[in-house]
């Protein structure tokens, strides 16, 4: 889904007047942010969340609109998106909740299984969407992930790509470019160039969030109307900045190198997403090279 900026949702669909620049800049209630985009994530009047910064891109806004149009999953609604002095501002729905990361230590096994089932249903819906036949953003643009960044905007690195082999070659080329820019050389980068495009194949493009972590899952307590017991409901999946059409292994394999293995969360990830240990191991190699 593509639209030109500025974008403003119809006033009749808003929970109140949109915040102006002064209100946004003066906001004191901030939310923790997973990635460093040089800006802030602020709550305004318990109605809006505004994400802005020099490295914020439009992709998250486009993705939220795409989700609202194509799926029925818990995600914030986009209310506005615009640029001011070359800074992107994304104004989203505020959803009262806490992060799963905060809630996890106090959850019962029954709570954890319930949340995992809810997340499994969400990701199954996403993955069931018809493949668009390319790898890239939801608006058919470049792959919205830092592994595909190119200062020269080289399409061989940025995409979008028609084949998974091109997708793999792009990662290897990005690695080679990064090492070249730092006046270094990586033999591991050479290895990726020789083997990555063929090691990861036969994975069709599927709609992918791209950063499944407990911090990006919001939950809230509810009372079961049948048992009258307290339960947790997934309120929203947030932080869609890197979402797009990726190879079907990416949702799992991309987070595999980040799993800490200090509690039971990795085991529950396997209930949410089909585990792909071989693809995960290959992406750990990619991670060790590109995250130097």
TrEMBL record:
InterPro entries: AGP_Transferase (IPR051678), Aminoglycoside_PTrfase (IPR002575), Kinase-like_dom_sf (IPR011009). Residues 57-256 form the Aminoglycoside phosphotransferase domain. SUPFAM superfamilies: Protein kinase-like (PK-like) (SSF56112). CDD domains: APH_ChoK_like (cd05120). PANTHER family: AMINOGLYCOSIDE PHOSPHOTRANSFERASE DOMAIN-CONTAINING PROTEIN, AMINOGLYCOSIDE PHOSPHOTRANSFERASE-RELATED-RELATED. This is Aminoglycoside phosphotransferase domain-containing protein. The lineage of its organism: Eukaryota, Fungi, Dikarya, Ascomycota, Pezizomycotina.
């Amino acid at each position: 889904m593509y639209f030109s900026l500025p974008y403003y949702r119809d006033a009749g669909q808003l929970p109140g007047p949109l915040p102006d620049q002064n209100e946004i800049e003066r906001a004191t209630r901030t939310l923790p942010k997973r990635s460093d985009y040089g800006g802030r994530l602020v709550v305004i009047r318990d109605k809006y969340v505004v994400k802005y910064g020099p490295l914020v891109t439009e992709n998250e806004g486009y993705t939220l609109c795409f989700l609202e149009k194509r799926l029925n999953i818990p995600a914030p609604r986009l209310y506005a998106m615009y640029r001011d002095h070359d800074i992107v501002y994304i104004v989203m729905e505020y959803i009262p909740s806490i992060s799963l990361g905060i809630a996890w230590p106090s959850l019962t096994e029954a709570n954890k299984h319930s949340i995992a089932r809810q997340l499994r249903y969400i990701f199954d819906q996403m993955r069931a969407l018809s493949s668009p036949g390319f790898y890239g953003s939801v608006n058919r643009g470049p792959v919205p992930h830092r592994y595909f960044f190119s200062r020269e905007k080289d399409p061989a690195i940025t995409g979008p790509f028609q084949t998974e082999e091109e997708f793999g070659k792009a990662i290897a080329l990005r690695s080679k470019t990064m090492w070249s820019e730092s006046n270094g050389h990586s033999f591991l980068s050479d290895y990726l160039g020789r083997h990555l495009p063929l090691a990861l194949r036969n994975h069709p493009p599927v709609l992918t969030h791209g950063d499944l972590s407990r911090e990006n899952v919001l939950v809230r307590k509810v009372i079961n109307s049948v048992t009258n017991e307290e339960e947790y409901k997934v309120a929203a999946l947030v932080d869609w900045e890197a979402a797009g059409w990726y190879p079907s292994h990416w949702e799992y394999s991309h987070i595999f190198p980040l799993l800490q293995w200090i509690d039971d969360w990795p085991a529950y990830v396997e209930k949410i997403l089909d585990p792909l240990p071989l693809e995960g191991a290959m992406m750990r190699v990619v991670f060790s090279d590109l995250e130097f």
